[in-house]
Amino acid sequence: MNREQKATVIDEIAGQISEANAVYAIDYRGISVPQAAELRARLHGAGASFRVVKNTLTLRAADQAGAGSLKGLLEGPTALTFVRGDVAAAAKALNDYARETNLMAFKGGLMDGEALDADQLRSIARLPTRDVLHGQLVAMVASPLTGLVRTLNALISGLAVQLGQIAEQGLVGGDAPQAQAAAQAPAASADEPPAPEAPDQEADPEPEPQPVQPDQARGEDQTPEEDA
Q1: What count of other Cβ atoms lies within 10 Å of the Cβ of residue 228?
Q2: Which terminus of the chain faces fewer neighbouring Cβ atoms within 10 Å, N or C?
C-alpha cells in the first residue's frame, strides 16, 4: 500500500468515525472470513458496519477525526463497528454473536464523543432496541386512550338505556302532558263531593183547596123554609 492509498484509507476511517453515532472496538481474534461476513449481515440490520483496520492507520484517522479516546483501544487485532442506526441493537448483535461463537470481545468504544469501556458496551447490549422501546411507548400512550374510549362507550350505552326507559314511561314526546292530565282528571272528579240533585220540574203540583162558597155553607147548616 503506497502513501496515497494509505491517505485514502485514513480519510475513509476518519469520515466513518465522524459520521457514526457510536464506534465499538472489537478484538476479532479467531474469527473467520465467513463468520465476519455473517456478522456484517447482522449488523447491517441495525444500521452498522464492521471493518477490520490497521492500528497504525486508525491511530492517524482517530487524530484526524478528533477521537483521541479511541487510540488507547488500538492494540492487538482490532475491528471497528461504526453505528449510524440503533446503538443498542448493534451492541446486542455483537454480544449475541460473541456468545454464540465464543469469539470476539469488546474492547471499548465511543458514543457521542464520550469514551466507553467494555462493561458499558455489555450494558448497552442489554438495553431494549429502538423498535422494542417504540412499541412500549405506543402501548403506554394507547392504554389511557383505550380506557377513555371504553368509559365513553359505557356512558353512551347507559344514557341510551335511560332514554329508552323514559320513552317507555311516556315522559318524553308531545303527548306526555295530555296523557298525564287525562290520568289526573278522573282522580280529581272522584275526590269532589256529589252535587245535590235538582228538583224535578215535571212532577205534578199538589191541588190547592177550593174556597167554600156562602151558599154552600148555609145550605149545609140550615134546612129550607118550606120544610120548617
Answers
A1: 6
A2: C
> Of 92, 74, 83, 155, which Cα lies nearest the Cα of 129?
92
The DSSP 8-state label assigned to residue 175 in this structure reads T
Short-list 52, 17, 47, 49, CA closest to 33:
52
**Prediction pTM value:** 0.57
Q: Which residues pair with 81 in a beta bridge?
A: 24, 50
Distance, CA of 193 to CA of 178 (rounded, Å): 25
Q: Do residues 2 and 56 lie in contact, with contact meaning Cβ atoms separated by under 8 Å? A: no
- The closest of 190, 203, 28, 21 to 101, measured between CA atoms, is 28
- Do the strands 48-52 and 79-83 form a parallel or antiparallel pair, or are they unpaired? antiparallel
pLDDT of the residue at 217: 43
Grid cell in block for residue 148: 377513555
83 close to 90: Cβ distance less than 8 angstroms: yes
Longest dimension (CA), the chain: 202
| pLDDT score at 113 | 84
CB 121 within 8 A of CB 129: no
Q: Please identify which residue in the block is written with the cell numbers 183547596.
A: 209
Strand, helix or coil for residue 207: coil
Which pLDDT tens digit goes with each residue over 149-167?
666 676 676 666 666 666 6
d(CA 8, CA 168): 88
Between CA 77 and CA 30 the distance in angstroms is 10
Whether residue 78 contacts residue 55, with contact meaning beta carbons closer than 8 Å, is answered with: yes
Q: Which residue has the cell 120548617?
A: 228
Domain 9-125 classified CATH 3.40.50.720? Answer: no
